[in-house]
């Protein structure tokens, strides 16, 4: 006895819409992750050849060439810097870092004074911001 074989309908999934969605997601993440928020305080940073891989920047101290000091966009004086730092900086976190963005024309002694006050306040990790030399 012969049985009649029924032809099965082939179920094919069209991957084109899925590829389109993945491509759009890749573009979205590329665009959203490359946006770097630059502080509005203009300073000319010194240049270096080496590059720091560390990305974590919890607090930023900006020093302008005319002697202004900003702690995360908030203007402070040299006398009130340590107190403001102790209030805003998380000293308990081992990943916390204080980044110093000093203009190339700022006196070396002023930068050292800020670093000294930060260490006295209990900051364990300091970094100096620089720009990469463009050849």
Number of helices: 3
Average pLDDT number: 81
Anisotropy-based shape: elongated
Number of strands: 7
Uncertain segments are 53-57
What gap, in angstroms, lies between the N and C termini? 85 Å
Specify Rg, calculated over alpha carbons: 27 Å
Strand content: 15-25%
What fold name stands as the CATH topology of the domain at 47-132?
Nucleotidyltransferase, domain 5
SSE sequence, one letter per element: HEEEEHEHEE
Task: Return the CATH architecture of the domain at 47-132.
Answer: 2-Layer Sandwich
Strand order across the biggest sheet? 4-3-2-5-6
What attributes does this structure have?
alpha/beta, Nucleotidyltransferase, domain 5, five-stranded mixed beta sheet, two-stranded parallel sheet, 7 strands
Protein model, in words:
This protein has 135 residues and is an alpha/beta fold. The chain has a domain at 47-132: Nucleotidyltransferase, domain 5, CATH 3.30.420.270. Helices cover 30% and strands 17% of the residues. The protein is built from 3 helices and 7 strands. The strands form 2 sheets. A 5-stranded mixed beta sheet has the order 4-3-2-5-6, with helices on one face. Helix 2 (81-88) packs across helix 3. The chain starts with 15 loop residues before the first helix and ends with a strand.
């Amino acid at each position: 006895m012969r049985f009649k074989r029924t032809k099965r309908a082939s179920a094919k999934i069209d991957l084109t819409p899925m590829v389109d969605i993945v491509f759009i997601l890749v573009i979205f993440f590329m665009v959203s992750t490359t946006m770097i928020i630059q502080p509005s305080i203009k300073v000319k940073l010194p240049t270096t050849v080496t590059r720091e891989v560390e990305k974590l920047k919890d607090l930023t101290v900006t020093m302008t060439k005319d002697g202004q000091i900003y702690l995360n966009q908030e203007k402070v004086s040299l006398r009130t810097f340590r107190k403001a730092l102790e209030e805003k900086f998380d000293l308990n976190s081992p990943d916390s870092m204080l980044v110093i963005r000093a203009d190339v024309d700022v006196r070396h002694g002023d930068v050292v004074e800020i670093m000294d006050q930060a260490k006295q306040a209990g900051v364990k990790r300091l970094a100096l911001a620089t720009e990469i030399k463009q050849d």
